[in-house]
Amino acid sequence: MTAVMTTDAVATAYDRWAPVYDLVFGPVFRQGRLAAIRAAEAVGPRILEVGVGTGISLPHYSQGSLITGVDLSDDMLEKARTRVRRQGLSNVQAIRVGDAEALDFATSSYDAVVAQYVVSAVPNPTRALDEFARVCRPGGEIIITTRVSADKGFRGGVEKALMPITSRLGFRTDFPFTLYTDWVATRDDVELVESRPIPPLGHFSLVRIAKKDAA
Ligand SMILES: C[S@@+](CC[C@H](N)C(=O)[O-])C[C@H]1O[C@@H](n2cnc3c(N)ncnc32)[C@H](O)[C@@H]1O
Fold it and tell me: Any idea which architecture 7-211 has in CATH?
């Protein structure tokens, strides 16, 4: 898969989405977000949410979690900050600009790294996955909700055909699951522990990747 997007273009695309994002992508991804949060909180309280966007997931974390959210888009983050303030979300420790491909956090500093509907929007997904693995502690988990494209058939053809349009809107429709399995195969410190379909339409999955405990 070639990188068809640039970081600046993605940030601009989501600055444009910000005013209507929750309306368009709120309810449709809700079940996936709740499942990802449940999985993250089972691992530990220190949670980094990459691509936190408008912070739509933040009110669903429990009070005992300690959440940091990063995103490329200033306008999305402004919505997140407003949400945190208005709803008094005292479990949110920081909301900051940050690039999934170059995270500004110490190695092994989070119990769980959550990326919801983000990896297919990142220009270089495997670079982001490397960063998720770096900041996740041994024994922790990377929890991803992700688009998964059909390899072939009518849906696969449509997803490939839509790529020039959707990549300008800030996401890929053509995003094979092998991106994750191939990445896991390149590393000896992570393992795929779960992949299960989540709504809507069976086009998305919840993926859990564990960082192995240090020997
Ligand atoms: C489809 S939205 C998902 C937002 C939110 N996680 C949700 O559940 O609705 C993708 C988000 O990823 C962010 N994003 C894309 N590439 C990124 C990168 N390299 N680093 C950080 N955030 C990124 C976008 O700005 C956008 O807010």
Answer: 3-Layer(aba) Sandwich (3.40)
